[in-house]
């Protein structure tokens, strides 16, 4: 009992209702455990099938469990940041800078390890809410040509990730099995602390830019596209099968280095034409530093 103490009775909100329960504290336990007593209070239903195990609530809806390390819990309790009032004028004055489509670079070829076999991982069960949440994003990427229908021996699942403080979801592909089969390239992404030390002390005004969907500016070579296939069903749009990426996907282990090197080459001319400015690049994040406000805004 001293090694694994019990908490006092706590009221916990579990997304599917609130329960009053005493929890056993086992900090070194490698897995999250749901005891029969708590499952009974939730009215949980456990289903075993060839696709995997599903835990449903008493209404038949999937129960999602988020497991975090203690050091990573603090963002869950932070107050949401309010938008900066100075941002809207930038959106109105420079509309082309925020466009969904833009120029593309040379195709990227993904090289496999010798003897690598196709990765075949079935799609994980997905709640109806999550499916509805990511559907608009998938449709938009199809319309833009970033995704295309295909048939491939490769398949890896999508993970719907809920955006903070909203009911919106974004699709994230689980490419761990693909990454095991892809040859590593030497990582050249710089250390951010080393980067920051290169800013002159006199440069005290900063502009920060986050390049949205930046990896999509690099096309994938046709021979590499089938490696990143996933299942997708959208009867309203007549899609029932597999989709794959035509652009450099997020989640590929080499994507940050590939993009970082390509963008670095594109910024060489800017550096030579603006020696009075300090431009730092960390993958798809840019920081422009200048001595004065006006120079920073117009730089």
From TrEMBL:
Which gene is the coding source of this polypeptide chain?
A: Ervk7_2
Q: Does the keyword NADP apply?
A: no
Q: What is this protein called?
A: POK7 protein
UniProt cross-references to PROSITE patterns, sorted A to Z: ASP_PROT_RETROV, RT_POL
Q: State the Gene Ontology terms under molecular function.
A: aspartic-type endopeptidase activity
Entry-linked InterPro entries: DNA/RNA_pol_sf (IPR043502), Peptidase_A2_cat (IPR001995), Peptidase_aspartic_dom_sf (IPR021109), Retropepsins (IPR018061), Rev_trsase/Diguanyl_cyclase (IPR043128), RT_dom (IPR000477), Viral_Replic_Matur_Polypro (IPR051320)
Work out whether the entry's keyword set contains Transport: no
User: One GO biological process from the UniProt record?
Assistant: proteolysis
Keywords per UniProt: Hydrolase
Domain annotation Peptidase A2: ranges: 24-38
The family database entries (PANTHER family) matched by this protein are listed as:
PEPTIDASE A2 DOMAIN-CONTAINING PROTEIN-RELATED, POL PROTEIN
Q: Which residues form the Reverse transcriptase domain?
A: 142-299
Q: So what family is this one in?
A: Belongs to the beta type-B retroviral polymerase family. HERV class-II K(HML-2) pol subfamily.
